[in-house]
TrEMBL record:
This is Nuclease-like protein. It holds the Pfam family NERD. InterPro entries: NERD. Residues 53-172 form the NERD domain.
Amino acid sequence: MDIVFILFIIVGLVIIFNKMRDYIEAKNNVPQRSYYIPIQEKETIEPVTQSHRGTRAERRLVAKLLKSGIPAQTIFHDLYLKKYKDKYSQIDLVVATKVGILVFEIKDYSGWIFGNGHQTRWTQVLAFGQQKYSFYNPILQNNKHIADLKKQLQQFQNIPFYSIIVFDGDCTLKDITFVPEGTYIVKAERVIEVMQIITETNTPAPYTNKNDVVRVLKQAVQNGESYEVQRQHVENIKDMLGEDRIFN
C-alpha cells in the first residue's frame, strides 16, 4: 500500500480521535486539552498562564485582558482552590482590582441560550430548535466559586466580589432573566466594557493585606499544575453529577 495513503489514513484517524475526545470532555465538563497552540497565543498569554492550562476560550480571554492593558500580575488563570482532603474548587479566571475581586466563569457555546438566576439548569438550543441541551446554571456555579474563595482569607469577608459569566463562541443570549446584583452576563467581545463599568462605578475595596490576596490566588494557580489534582477534581465532578445583568 502506498506510504502516502497510509499516512493520510493515520492523520485522519488522529483528527477524528481528537474531535471525539473534545466532545466527551465537553459533555463531562472537562477542560479541553490543547492540541495546537499558535505561537502568537503562547507569546501573548505567557506573562499569565501556559498554553496547556484551561480551555481555548479561557486563554483567548487572558490574551484579550493583557492586550487591553490589564496588568499581568492581577490576572490569575485556572485556579484550584483546596477545600478539604482531596476536594478542590476549580475557577476559570480571577482578576484582582481596586474595587474588589472579579471572578469569571467562561462558557464556549453556540446556538441560543435560555435561563434565569433561579433555575438549576439552563438550556442551549441548536439547529433552529431541533436540538436542545441543558447545562448547570453558571450563575449558581460561579456563586459557589465565590463562596469557596471567601473562605480562604478573613479579609475576603469585607471585600466585594463580582461574578462575570462570559459566553464565548457563536451564541446568542435569548432570554436571560433574574440576574442577581453583582453578577454580569456578557459576550466575550464586551468583557472589557463590563470590567470598566465595574471599576468606574464602585469605590475602592478595603484590602487589609494585598500580599495575602496574591499569595492565596497564586497558590491556587500552582495547585492546577498537578495532574493528580486535575484528575481528582474531574472524578469529584462526575461523582457529584452521578455520571462517569446582560450584554449581547
